[in-house]
Amino acid sequence: MDLPNPFPILRLPYLAIEEVFKSLHPIEIINLSLISKRAKAVTKQMTFYSKYDICLRIDEGLGIAIRVENKLVSCTYLMTSDERMNGNVEEYGGNDYIVRRVYKYSKNPIEEWKQLFKYVLDILKKQTLHLLFITLDDFVDHNVSIIDFLRKNVKSVTECQLYQDEVENDVEEHAAYLLNNLKVSNELHFHLNIKNDNFDWKIPKNLKELYIHDSEWIGYERLVEIDCEHVTLRDNQITNEQWSLFLKKWMAMETNQNLNYLRLDNRDLEEFRAIVLHDIPHEVVDKGVKRNLIFWFPDETEEINGGIDIRRIDGKIATFFVQDNVFSMSVH
Which parts of the sequence belong to the F-box domain (predicted)? Predict the structure, then answer.
């Protein structure tokens, strides 16, 4: 059987080429751009890349993912030092999503990963990183060089997720270095075990979401510096007296003016009223009163019965309630 003649994609009119490109997986677009200088030039002329998001994953491996908005299509390059994995492709999915993973062998996976990431940024004309997922104790010897590389090549990170594998590992210095050198613009998920109360990091302002899983190191001074829309502080050690001072400052519009939702560990609502709100004007709302209040990010609401209200000087109300074993403060 004769092989079909090659299809001259690059000789088509521009609009026809763009339609062909739209039908390709993002990784196929990157691969096509590598064929020749002309292929690269044509690839960079496409105008639909705004729907693509670039994500980096740094844990047991090094990944570069290109996600397509609204279609839940994820195409990921995974750098590997295992030559047997080179070129392997994994694909899985369901009715509403597709995941494709391509393994790329390298004797120096970190440096080649950096170069490939720069190339993807250039082809897709991106200056921001949609997601950075990094486990800080997996590539300890390379953390600083990776952070410096990202600082030079991306203007900001939309969502940053920080993890560590082993609780006993000290990751504080590298965590502070990352957060002091990269601009996180939207969401920060902090899953690190910080042992030092003087952890040298200033919390970014105006985040849409700040999630700190182990927040024992978040004291009162840091609490009043936070100015994010959605805040979760798990296992915090802030005293009842300090919470009372914080709420008085919030009511006077002296702190956390952008706060829409605060999530804490479960606690008894009546005990909170008696201890924290004892000298703060408040209103106990009848349990028969139902209101749709913000309960999760991003501004997801749920029907809440009753609660306890306090009022800010500009008329904004904060309602305290317990739902699904979660103690919440919802601003409306």
Answer: 6-52
- Given a cut of 60, whether residue 1 has pLDDT beyond it is no
- Which residue from 239, 307, 313, 188 is spatially nearest to 330, judged by alpha carbons? 307
Structure confidence at residue 106 (pLDDT): 80
Q: What is the mean pLDDT of residues 246-262?
A: 96
Backbone angles phi, psi at 112, to 5 degrees: -70, -35
Residue 173 buriedness (CB in 10 A; 0-12 / 13-18 / 19+): middle
As given in the structure block, the two tokens for residue 50 are 């705004």
User: Which own/partner pairs from 109-117 qualify as long-range (CB within 8 Å, at least 24 positions apart)?
Assistant: 109/62, 109/79, 109/80, 109/81, 110/62, 110/79, 110/139, 110/142, 110/145, 110/146, 112/79, 113/62, 113/64, 113/79, 114/146, 114/149, 116/64, 116/77, 116/79, 117/54, 117/56, 117/64, 117/153
According to DSSP, the residues that pair with 231 across neighbouring strands are 210, 262
Provide the angle, in degrees to the nearest 10, between the axes of the packed helices 172-181 and 143-153.
Answer: 10
Q: Using one digit for the tens of pLDDT, what is the confidence trace for 20-63? A: 888 888 888 998 999 999 999 999 999 999 989 999 989 878 88
CA neighbor of 294 nearest in space, from 312, 277, 281, 307: 307
Q: Is 72 a residue whose pLDDT tops 70?
A: no
Question: Using only C-alpha atoms, what is the Rg of the chain?
Answer: 24
pTM of the model: 0.89
Cα separation, 319 vs 304, in Å, equals 10
- Can you tell me whether residue 76 is helix, strand or coil? strand
Residue 194's CB is within 10 A of a number of other CB atoms, namely 20
Distance of alpha carbon 260 from alpha carbon 291, whole angstroms: 15
